[in-house]
Amino acid sequence: MSQLVFYLFAVLAVASSVLMITRKNPVYSAMFLVLTLFSLAAIYVLLNAHFLAALQVVVYAGAIMVLFLFVIMLLNLGHDVEPDVRPLIAWVFGGGLGLVLLAEVVVALRSTEAVADIDLLSVWFQEKGAVAGVAEPLFRTQLVAVEVAGLLLLVAMVGAVVLAKRKS
Amino acid sequence: MTMLEESLALSGVLFSVGVVGVLMRRNAIVMFMSIELMLNAVNLSFVALSRNVGIEGQLFVMFVMTVAAAEAAIGLAIIISIFRHYESVDIRKFRLLRW
Question: I need a surface site. Which of A78, A102, B39, B66 has the fewest CB within 10 A?
């Protein structure tokens, strides 16, 4: 059953990502990116990452996509779109490069031996809970990294304000 | 049944689609969305491997999300200020450092 759901959302994610890079109108691209991110959130649930699934919906499908749509609408790019997809020769090169990359992944996957079918996380989350299971190691072992990430967000916020401010 | 191989394969496919999107489009915003897609593909492989390795994979995903949020804010601010200058987000028009 869960395998079936996984394949459903995997097909949805791949299809909507392909549609995302082929639509001319950037608003449609943004909408298909939302669909991709939502199906990835569903896959996170199947992979025992419930908190990250919620975070994915809130941060990516919520905040970042609103930012993208806001910029598209602010710059008025939604209508009279000029075709910006590169010509056929570039498709041959770019698609070929993508296929080479894909073949590399396939070779790397095939050459590693199968790992034992272990599932550490379901036991871990059962005894800690979905949020505390992530938060406790985050604030115990990665505390410095959390502080640095907070500082990074502050710097990014100040930088975005400075960059987008109109020069008087 | 951990679905590790399927998840890694999906992650590879999504990453390749993101690379092709960056190479194929000339609209700076769509190229930016493709970069977000690549970050998400990497996140998926982290989550899939964390079932075999431990909770650290999911912690990494949080930091990747933080960096992605910061990157989106800064990148879109750069795109806005470029648009003010060139009146376009088409990368063919940005030729200050190109011959």
Answer: A78
